[in-house]
Amino acid sequence: MKSPKTIKLVTAFGAFALFVILAPLAAAQGRQDFTLYNKTGQAITEMYVSPASENDWGDDILGIDILANGENTTIHFSPKERAAKWDIKLVDEAGKSHWKYAFNLLDISEITVRDNGDGTWYWNWK
Fold it and tell me: Which pTM does this prediction carry?
């Protein structure tokens, strides 16, 4: 019969082994990764995501692609990225810019944009 000390040791070793196996898998993704859902009725032709501390939007991360109405895309960050707050700017098919500042992407995994019916967009996140 195993002593309680042996059982604790085996349990601790098993937990450690599980951590060693799963930790690299969790680190393969940035903690700021999120999925953007387009429910605006229009295509999104450009998307910019930049740290809130930056004054420049940087490059259009959609490139030549568009995000059609009803579609979604997942934005992946480097696991080395440390910034929590991010600004997002979207450009619709008519060329109008829509932006939202200071998203805490450490707490957000989904962002949905919808048309308010007056040319402005409503942003919802969770």
Answer: 0.77
Cα separation, 89 vs 17, whole angstroms:
43
Contact 45, 76 (CB under 8 A): no
Interatomic CA distance for residues 72 and 53, integer angstroms: 26
Amino acid identity of residue 21, one-letter, is I
What single letter denotes the amino acid at residue 11? Answer: T
Distances (CA, A) of 45 to 3, 21, 85: 65, 40, 23
Q: Beta strands 34-39 and 72-75: pairing type?
A: antiparallel
Report the relative pairing of strands 97-104 and 85-92 from DSSP bridges: antiparallel
pLDDT digits over 37-49, tens only? Answer: 999 999 999 999 9
